[in-house]
Amino acid sequence: MEFNNNQAIYLQIAAYVCDQIQLQKWQADEKIPSVRELAVILEVNPNTVMRSYDHLQQQDIIYTRRGMGYFVNKDALQTITKTRKEEFLNEELPQVFRKMRLMEISGQEFLERFEKYKTNINLK
Prior knowledge:
Number of strands: 2
CATH topology of the largest domain: Arc Repressor Mutant, subunit A
Mean pLDDT: 95
Strand order of the largest sheet: 1-2
Largest sheet: 2 strands, antiparallel
Structural class: mainly alpha
Radius of gyration: 18 Å
Number of helices: 5
Helix content: 55-70%
CATH architecture of the largest domain: Orthogonal Bundle
Distance between the termini: 23 Å
């Protein structure tokens, strides 16, 4: 995983974990990699992964079973989707709309491109 300088590494790792859950690679109540395993996979310090896991526990995305490790919370997928949707709608979408206005992209043109995108994505 390549990290960027715009966000703390532990938050980028938390986003990676959320991606795995949203992609349904990690299912509800399924065990996820241990702190050490994920640290090796991502080539980071285990303390950084631990900080990510603590952050995700506070958000009720994952939980721990004593002596067994970390697991995906049963409502994690819905929680992640809701949170990310709100962030997108409140932070990113206004920027998209601003760029559309500056480049004179109409709502109709945007919708046509979006429909084309949805059609093409289903082919893959």
